[in-house]
Amino acid sequence: MKKMFKRLFLVSCFALVAASLVGCGSENKKEDSKNDTKSEEKSMVVGVTSFADTLEPTEQYFSWVVSRYGVGENLVRFNENGELEACLAEEWSVSEDHLTWDFKIREGVQFSNGTELTPESVKDSLERTFELSPRGETFFKPAAIEVEGQSVLIKTEEPVAIVPGSLADPLFLIVDTTADTEKFAQDGPICTGPYIVESFSPTDTCELVKNENYWDGEVPLDRVTMKCIDDQATRSMALQNNEIQIAYNLKTENIAEFEGNDEIVIDKLDSLRSTYAFMNQNGPLKDKKLRQALLQGIDRETYVKNLLQGGATAGKAPIPPTLDYGFDELVNENTFDPEAAKKILVEAGYQDKDGDGFVETPSGDPLDLEFVIYTSREELNVYAQAMQANMKDIGVKVTLNTVSYETLLDMRDASSFDLLIWNVLVANTGDPENYLKENWYSSSPSNQAGYRNEKVDAALDKMAVTFEEEERKKLAMEIQQNIMDDAATMFFGYETTYLFSNATVEGVKMFPMDYYWLTKDIKYAD
């Protein structure tokens, strides 16, 4: 399928200059290196934010860690232009009736434990995913998965346009099901990637070592440490001190810390990520008037331009403008207008009866909206605090509840929130269909905010069987406009992603699909 990408900007902010600083374990290690690895071992340390409390890929979204850390691979993958390309499947095709997808499995591939990758093992892995993860069928529901020679045939009861892109999502990475799968959570799954897990501590480090059985060329590093450093300032300082050689999730404000430092390379990407807050319609926010007042009370332009220093684009719709799905054509009826927000509240019966500066509900009960957030991404805390202040200005009390990402997932699934922060890739299958379905389809297991709209459901059902790109775009625009008109979700912004790395490191790339951090191409310059 042709991708609907607008041009993504990838720029190097500082020139990559040959530097004398030495990465952890580099061949040209200096005597004063701060890393005490063996001189013959090529090793690297990457600074990341903690994300998973397990490496079992069917749990929540934790397969992303397995993919990002270079452990897991899929039948297909996305390249740096957001286009699908072959990986464990050499090629794929679909039948004329669009009901059978044929994936030809690559020969000569082994899992990290030496077991041969076969069509049968691929079939078993995919069936395991669908059995264990309720998210599996939010992508597509297979009628059958069969093996025919060197091919895996995936059959669906009706046409599904996004099958190949779905199989590139980390949820569907291929594991050896003949291994001890009970150990996957702590020891890491047995996969086919360039690295394997040696040890894992969710809030500290994940130690990775070279996969000696890797099928796609020489793995350049013997050891990589993925070091969890949640605090953004600490992560930046670790890069400045060469304690880490690559830093993920640094932001615009960190750029000044490296100005004039030609030992650090900074890349920038207008990403496909959206930050928003679910508004739970199972509680006080079932009142559309209250939701409209909240949306008209938030100053998103100030958030991204001033508080995030231009590190994001102001939000309005489910799909960011980096994808060509009609962003500029969509009509936002709930733009920033605090006086209009106050008027909506008064007309809907929300009044400050006790004089504490905050309104009560029309029935006279206190109104205190719980906003559940996690802060391993710094911009989430910025959005939440700024929103809380804006809400105070219009007389709505919001209380922030900061939890771990894992707890946030549990609270989302239990519908235990009024508002809940979310930061997600909007095109995890190559286009936004799955993202829209997962979050706003009425029967989606991930839709615990109580959103229901028959028109949205019907358009998503139609989109699932539509292969023509312009028609898919029209349906996506219809879905987005309905979500916006329903005041269903609070869209904050679409972030700019930065990747900071030491100039001694080469092969570092940014991908629109944020699945790949450690790849076989990352190494020290010769």
Task: Map the helices and strands.
Blueprint: E1 10-12, E2 43-48, H1 63-68, E3 76-78, E4 84-86, E5 89-94, E6 100-105, H2 119-132, H3 136-139, E7 142-148, E8 151-156, H4 163-166, H5 184-187, E9 195-200, E10 205-210, E11 223-228, H6 232-240, E12 246-248, H7 252-255, E13 264-270, E14 273-279, H8 288-296, H9 300-307, E15 312-314, H10 338-347, E16 368-373, H11 378-394, E17 397-402, H12 405-413, E18 419-425, H13 433-440, H14 454-464, H15 469-485, E19 489-502, E20 505-506, E21 523-524
Parallel strand pairs: 2-11, 2-12, 16-17, 16-18
Antiparallel strand pairs: 1-13, 3-4, 5-6, 6-8, 7-8, 9-10, 10-11, 12-19, 13-19, 14-18, 14-19, 15-19, 20-21
Helix pairs in contact: 8-10, 13-14, 14-15
List key phrases describing it.
single chain; 526 residues; globular; D-Maltodextrin-Binding Protein, domain 2; 15 helices
